[in-house]
Write a structure and sequence with these properties.
Elements (H helix, E strand, L loop, with lengths): L1 E6 L3 E5 L13 E5 L1 H11 L4 E8 L2 H11 L4 E7 L8 E5 L8 E5 L21 E7 L1 H4 L2 H16 L3 E5 L9 H11 L5 E5 H8 L5 H12 L3 E5 L5 E5 L2 E5 L12 H14 L4 H15 L11 H10 L4 E2 L1
Parallel strand pairs: 1-4, 1-8, 2-6, 4-5, 8-9, 9-10, 10-11
Antiparallel strand pairs: 2-3, 6-7, 11-12, 12-13, 13-14
Helix pairs in contact: 1-8, 8-9, 9-10
GO molecular function: kinase activity
Protein name: Bifunctional 2-dehydro-3-deoxygluconokinase/2-dehydro-3-deoxygalactonokinase
Family: Belongs to the carbohydrate kinase PfkB family.
């Protein structure tokens, strides 16, 4: 049985050396990055059998992504696009300190994944999954992907998998009212909701005390578990009438990209390993803190490193 299957876009991330500007650099580092594959990698690094499904151009760029994900132990089930219009989404990341800040430029319009339908994705990919995960980025990419996301979530539930969904709102992809409407249309097929506190407020109009927000979402949409992430204020989870809170574990931030995905990967991996919700929150927080010390989108770490952080910071768990 596969522990976790994820579905979504993975792009190539192109970055100049730190301190250089995109408009002047003669060198770009290349890495793979995408919310759902980031989660798959984090879970795989923590001992889960992880599979990422998607659609990629049948080209060197598509193979580059598959090669990198497989190197971290992730199985890839890909629909290969050999059409003339096939393309791989990319994004350019220019690291910058204050006051300039980090800049991201996307070039992902009409990427092959935006045309992915359930019929062309590998048959049976969800049949033996314990958890199916996707994020709100995926339905934002095209009307086709919105329909495919709903179909896969529904199919995963029907096979008995636990379905997990992270709002992961991106203002560069759609506006809050459109995003909120689409999210709510998917909620009947979601068991575990992960939401950044700011996304719940922006897209769902859920503001106020975080425990009340999480409990309101759980009650109104009949989720099994709701996890509300709160940036430097940690996270809150509600399940079965219980409330759990988790502090952030301090980290020296080298690259924050992918921190939220690392949290989700750590949380789901611990749940799959039999951990309860507070244990999973601690593992999510530790995985996220370690990710911040690593360049690139991926949480390239070991279970021993995560356990060391959890053990050192055991006082951060509250029930």
């Amino acid at each position: 049985m596969t522990d976790i299957v994820t579905f979504g876009e993975t792009m190539l991330r192109l970055s100049p050396p730190r301190g250089e500007r995109l408009e002047r650099t003669s060198e770009l580092g290349v890495r793979a990055g995408g919310a759902e594959s980031n989660v798959a990698v984090a879970a795989a690094r923590l001992g889960c059998e992880s599979t990422w499904i998607s659609k990629l151009p049948d080209s060197a760029l598509g193979r580059r992504i598959v090669s990198e994900l497989r190197s971290h132990g992730v199985r890839t089930d890909v629909a290969w696009d050999d059409s003339e219009a096939a393309r791989c989404g990319t994004y350019y990341l220019e690291h910058g300190g204050e006051p300039r800040g980090t800049n991201v430029i996307y070039d992902r319009t009409d990427a092959s994944v935006t045309t992915a339908t359930p019929e062309e994705l590998p048959a049976g990919a969800l049949d033996d999954a314990e958890v199916f995960y996707t994020s709100g980025i995926t339905p934002a990419l095209s009307a086709t992907l919105a329909e495919t996301t709903e179909t896969l979530l529904r199919a995963a539930q029907e096979t008995g998998a636990t379905t997990a969904f992270d709002l992961n709102y991106r203002g560069k992809l759609w506006r809050p009212p459109e995003a909120g409407e689409r999210y709510e249309s998917l909620f009947p097929y979601v068991d575990v909701l992960v939401a950044a506190e700011r996304d719940a407020a922006t897209c769902l109009g859920r503001e106020g005390d975080p425990v009340e927000v999480a409990n309101g979402l759980l009650r109104d949409f009949d989720f099994e578990t709701v996890v509300l992430t709160r940036g430097e204020n940690g996270s809150v989870a509600v399940r079965g009438g219980e409330v759990y809170e988790q502090e952030v574990y301090d980290a020296e931030t080298f690259d924050p990209i992918g921190t939220g995905d690392a949290f989700v990967g750590g949380f789901l991996a611990r749940r799959l390993d039999g951990g309860d919700v507070p244990d999973a929150l601690a593992y999510g927080a530790a995985t996220a803190s370690l990710k911040r010390t690593i360049d690139g989108d991926l949480a390239v770490l070991t279970p021993e490193e995560v356990e060391a952080v959890v053990d050192r910071e055991a006082g951060g768990i509250s029930r």
